[in-house]
Amino acid sequence: MIYGVVLAAGLYYSALGLGGDHVPAARVAGFVSVMGLLFALEAMQRRWPAPGGSRAEVAALLAARLGLFVAAAALDPSGESRVLFLLVPFAAYFAFGRTVSLVLAAVCLTLLVAGFMLRVPHWYTQASYLSDVLMFAVGLVLAIAMASVAVAEQVYAAQVAALSAEAERTRLAGTSTTAWATT
Prior knowledge:
Number of domains: 2
Number of strands: 0
Distance between the termini: 62 Å
Shape: elongated
């Protein structure tokens, strides 16, 4: 869903010429192509890696996604594609845990700041860019917090399932013992 929103924002921005500069058609086509690849990668991930896939497979998908996010950010005429980077630590939390997720969040924040440093002279003196960095950092914190809650919920659900199975086994064992004793 987030891919669709980013795609729509980029197309809307370029169609209306909101940046004041003419956006070359090749850049827009490249952006659309990258977003199409992201949709395809998402569809492929539903089949691969299989649940319980190896860490190498998960890392390969995460790296591919990160590369496509960088390409989308470079081609996106609206600049809204940076929101995609919030998905990196979120996805990493499920596969690799909290520490890797936090490290990748720091990397994503560093990429945003580096992008501003390379493209916008004295960006740090402009409130809009400082606000973007702050909101991105808040988004990273929220993404990691949501992933943490989701993982905790999965652990809780697994514990409930294990306890339910044990209670059922105990009930069945008690029933068969009672049936055996009465015969």
